[in-house]
Write a structure and sequence with these properties.
Layout (H helix, E strand, L loop, with lengths): L3 H20 L16 E4 L5 E6 L6 E8 L13 H8 L11 H8 L9 E4 L4 E8 L3 H16 L5 H17 L3 H13 L14 H6 L2 H11 L5 E7 L3 H12 L23 E6 L7 E5 L3 E2 L6 H24 L9 E10 L2 E9 L5 H18 L3 H20 L6 H14 L6 H11 L5 H11 L7 E6 L9 H13 L24 E7 L4 E6 L4 E6 L7 E8 L10 H5 L1 H8 L6 H7 L5 E7 L3 E8 L4 H13 L5 H18 L3 H14 L19 H12 L6 E6 L6 H8 L23 E7 L6 E10 L4 H25 L7 E7 L5 E10 L4 H18 L3 H18 L3 H14 L9 H7 L2 H11 L5 E7 L4
Helix pairs in contact: 1-14, 2-8, 4-9, 10-11, 10-12, 10-15, 11-15, 11-16, 12-14, 18-23, 20-24, 25-26, 25-27, 25-30, 26-30, 27-29
Family: Belongs to the peptidase M16 family.
Protein name: Insulinase family protein
InterPro entries: Metalloenz_LuxS/M16, Pept_M16_N, Peptidase_M16, Peptidase_M16_C
Length: 939
């Protein structure tokens, strides 16, 4: 590649390293890594740790976190599940916010419950997440007040606790199923008698139903204390102001006079190898795990430790690539495989091998996995493998460094959370980039091979697990699993050959086209180029990201142009093209050519549309265009890779049918559309018998061998002058023979009237309610917004009434859309998991809330909350390349004014409660809906 921009990027990178090296000499191996210069880290006299960073992406937003080193592992026997229950209670009454007041207030300032405002509880920690707008000093101050209340002001009123019990129990019920049942058997073996096996965060139902309020208050008093807490504040705020607020709100917190020691559970050493076979007929996948000894692990905060981590990442990348290549055989030994070192729980990790199994069962998977790891252990990797991994890693660091001033606050927050909980070093990307540039080139093949030999154990202390429905093959005895591994290890393996590979995608560029016309839109900042082959290109240079360019081209057509006999040939045409590669490059070879570049591209054949798209780092834009040119002009044929993909997809489809949810989804589709074969559905194993290589390639070429009617959009950080010869060469040379570029309306329409259907499937005592309203409408952007408002206002009420007041559901709600194609229509649905005993109550309560909206319209406060959240999101989206690409592409495809999205705030302002009420009356027709309910099967 001979782009000036690439040379410039390389020069800039080298200059950056030189400047960094001049400013801060590289540490010695034993030196402790520094803290990132942009991070302010402190500790209050009471032991509370805090992290502060000013970061203006997104603008006018502050990410707050309260991190507590307390999770389910610390629960007493009468507290099973109460660490998680405590997290729930943080939103249900505190010193300054009564029950429901907190969520209501935060929604009023544009913070959405669930997506923005949330929390999680794990074995060893609880983390509370709170994004706050910073354009109001009052909102910022209240944000820190909320964190203070969570830290020491949760009230735990008896009535509030009792109101939350059914919600927690619904959450527990929702998690039940095949995976949960198998984990009940697996975890005691995996953790080898450790306390971790007995302290799943969700807890035990009998404790959750009957615990005395004193038990949860005791947990809170014991473990929510400043010496186990961190406050994190990253965003558009003055660090000094943030520090003042932290000291004011958290300096007064006190530790108990006699604190319980915070101890971390150990995992006993496994003395002998064990096999474990777990079967469940509802399991959606058969999985093999080979888990080697779980060993204690602490983060090494030194420069030498950083180098070891790079070595580990390099061999992990190479092992992963080898596993991917195993799945690309004509008859792959498994659907998906993996191998490497990974965290198990806090302070522990192990080397493991895993595979998602196909119809061949566990024996071929064991043979392939064990022998591939043995190959790496005995012979290591090849020089070319290491060279490619290094180039890829260096490019990743280069991108992170280039985006250092455009990184989202959430990324920094996650790093600070890991530092507090795990002790992960956080030297900052400026330092890490310098370290990577200095260290990666000097890592030797001998060093990597020695590390992988040490990482892959060869001992008798493994746990071998086979779990799933195992319906294709008889379940083996546990001893058979261990014997299969021993047999596989006895098979001699040979070193991998170090093959030469190409260094460029295209040997001879095509004759370039010409730019024959050009127009500018000064409002949008776009330039439209018309090329000599008729293809149009819209350029939108931005500074939203420093090292990102997005590309997309979409037109009408898609699967609708093919007959019913080609439904699956058309559906999988794009995916199969990707699986077989381009020109002379199989996917594995293509990845080698692209090592060290940040680029991805693909083609998609949708129901009514088709297109190509991708993304690249700014220096790799020409490679993106080259790859797109190859995908359209030189799709590759490979029967072995075709058979591999089809076989794996068939196995996935077979496995998925075991889930009760799969039958439920199919029942919904059938109730709405009958047996219409043109309605998309989950594939069945026999569907892949209809997928034929010759026909798939013919379908692909029919739609992608011509660029007629395509408008390519480029959005991101690029030089619009330098990009012109590139698009003229790679897009201007695309063939444009005449093909149809319109979709066909296939006449797919939902049933009319009221349809009710029941599905009885599944062992667990849980149900799911699906109610779908459909019909025709008039399409407009305003009507889209009315539907969106209706759905979001209704969701507020469903959460408030069905969850918080009645305790009938944990999650679920409404979704809906107004669509213009292939005809103007709407779909709005309710999905509400619940207990079988509560199905009628849930339906009645949901319908009652809908009727209230129809009769009285939405509450003014609820509509204001929805609109404020929209405006917050819109202002953030306007600084994202992906949003601009999507909006420009949609407008172009549908013939809308290209700048329609710039009028979004005016449309929001114009939306009224009367609009939402009218939409509720229009879209919820109680004489026309489909109701499908999933019940457990009869015992």
């Amino acid at each position: 590649m001979k782009l000036t921009t690439l040379r410039l990027a390389a020069a800039t990178a080298l200059l950056g390293v030189a400047l960094l090296a001049e400013a801060a000499p590289l540490p010695a191996p034993g030196d402790t890594l520094p803290v990132a210069p942009y991070a302010k880290v402190g500790r209050l006299p009471n032991g509370l740790t805090y992290y502060i960073q000013k970061n203006a992406r997104p603008e006018k937003r502050l990410e707050l976190r309260l991190v507590v080193k307390a999770g389910s592992i610390l629960e007493d026997d009468d507290q099973r599940g109460l660490a998680h229950f405590t997290e729930h209670m943080a939103f249900n009454g505190s010193t300054h916010f009564k029950r429901h007041e907190l969520i209501s207030y935060l929604q009023s300032i544009g913070v959405k419950y669930g997506r923005d405002l949330n929390a999680y509880t794990s074995f060893d920690e609880t983390v509370y997440m709170l994004p706050i707008p910073t354009d109001s000093k009052e909102a910022v101050a209240k944000g820190f007040l909320v964190l203070e209340d969570w830290a020491h002001g949760i009230t735990f009123n008896d009535a509030d606790i009792d109101s939350e019990r059914p919600i927690i129990l619904e959450e527990l019920r929702l998690g039940r199923g095949a995976n949960d049942r198998m984990n009940q058997v697996l975890l005691p073996k995996l953790f080898n008698g450790s306390r971790y096996a007995e302290r799943l965060p969700i807890g035990k139902a009998d404790v959750l139903r009957t615990f005395k309020p004193e038990a949860i208050r005791r947990f809170y008093q014991d473990w929510y204390r400043p010496d186990l807490m961190a406050v994190i504040a990253v965003g558009d705020i003055d660090p000094q102001e943030a520090e003042k607020l932290i000291k004011a709100h958290f300096g007064k917190l006190k530790n108990p006079d006699n604190p319980r020691p915070r101890e971390y559970a150990a995992i006993p050493e496994r003395k002998v190898s064990e096999g474990l076979v777990i079967t469940d007929r509802e399991a959606a996948a058969d999985v093999l795990y080979i888990r080697y000894p779980i060993v204690p692990h602490a983060e090494d905060p030194t420069y030498g430790g950083y180098r070891k981590d790079l070595v580990e990442k390099l061999y992990g990348m190479m092992l992963s690539q080898r596993m991917i290549e195993l799945t690309q055989q004509a008859d792959p030994p498994f659907i998906q495989g993996g191998s490497g070192m990974g965290k198990v729980v806090r302070g522990h990790r192990s080397f493991s091998i895993s595979a998602l199994l196909g119809k061949g069962g566990y024996v071929p998977a064991v043979n392939a996995l064990v022998q591939e790891d043995e190959r790496a252990r005995q012979f290591g990797f090849t020089p070319s493998e290491l060279e490619r991994a290094k180039r890829t890693m260096l490019r990743n660091y280069e991108r992170m460094y280039a985006e250092r001033d455009k990184s989202d606050s959430g990324a920094f927050v996650a790093e600070y959370v890991r530092n507090f909980l795990e002790g992960e070093p956080m030297p900052g990307i400026e330092n890490e980039y310098a370290y990577a540039q200095a260290l990666i080139p000097g890592i030797t093949l001998d060093e990597v091979n020695a590390a992988v030999r040490q990482a892959i154990p060869f001992d008798d202390k493994k746990l071998v697990i086979l779990m799933g429905s195992l319906k294709d093959t008889p379940a083996p005895a546990a001893a058979d699993l261990l014997a299969a591994i021993d047999t596989a290890r006895k098979v001699p393996v040979t070193a991998r050959a170090d093959k030469a590979y190409a260094t460029s995608l295209v040997d001879k560029p095509p004759a370039p086209g010409r730019i024959v016309a050009e127009t500018e839109d000064k409002v949008l900042g776009t330039t439209e180029l018309t090329l000599s082959n008729g293809v149009k290109v819209v350029l939108k240079p931005t500074d939203f990201r420093n090292d990102q360019v997005l590309m997309s081209a979409v037109r009408f057509g898609g699967q609708s142009l093919f007959g019913v006999e080609d439904v699956f040939n058309a559906r999988y045409a794009g995916a199969l093209a990707a699986q077989m590669g381009v020109a002379n490059y199989a996917p594995a070879d293509l990845q080698k050519v692209l090592a060290g570049k940040s680029v991805t591209a693909g083609a998609v054949l949708g129901e009514l549309t088709e297109g190509v798209g991708g993304s690249a780092g700014s220096a790799d834009l020409e490679t993106l265009l080259q790859l797109t040119w190859l995908k359209m002009t030189q799709p590759r044929r490979d029967e072995a890779l075709f058979n591999s993909f089809v076989g794996r997809q068939r196995d996935l489809a077979r496995n998925a049918l075991a889930r009760p949810e799969a039958e439920f989804a199919e029942a919904i589709r059938a109730a709405l559309y009958g047996d219409n074969p043109r309605v998309p559905r989950a594939p069945r194993p026999e569907d892949f018998d209809k997928v034929q290589l010759d026909r798939v390639q013919q379908v692909y070429r029919e739609r992608f061998a011509s660029a007629k009617g395509m408008v390519f959009l480029l959005v991101g950080n690029f030089d619009p002058v330098k990009v012109r010869p590139l698009v003229a060469t790679w897009l201007g040379s695309l063939p444009t023979p005449d093909i149809p570029v319109a979709y066909r309306d296939l006449g797919v329409r939902p049933v009319r009237g009221v349809v009710r259907k029941e599905v009885r499937r599944g062992k667990e005592a849980k149900s799911n309610v699906s109610i779908t309203f459909t019909g025709t409408t008039e399409f407009s952007l305003a009507e889209q917004m009315r539907m969106q408002a209706l759905v979001e206002v209704l969701n507020l009420k469903l959460t408030e009434v069905l969850r918080e007041q009645l305790g009938l559901i944990y999650g679920g709600g409404a979704s809906g859309a107004v669509a213009r194609l292939p005809y103007a229509h709407y779909t709005v649905g309710l999905g509400m998991p619940c207990g079988p005993e509560n199905v009628d109550k849930v339906i009645a309560a949901a319908f009652a809330e809908i009727r209230k909206l129809q009769e009285a319209g939405p509450d003014a406060d609820d509509l204001a909350k929805v609109k404020q959240n929209w405006l917050t999101n819109q202002r953030r989206a306007l600084r994202e390349n992906g949003y601009w690409l999507s909006e420009l592409q949609t407008a172009r495809l549908n013939g809308d004014p290209p700048g329609r999205f710039l009028e979004y705030e005016q449309r929001v302002a114009a939306l009224t409660a009367a609009d939402v009420q009218a939409a509720a009356r229009r879209y919820f027709d109680f004489e026309n809906y489909v109701q499908v309910v999933l019940y457990p099967e009869a015992k």
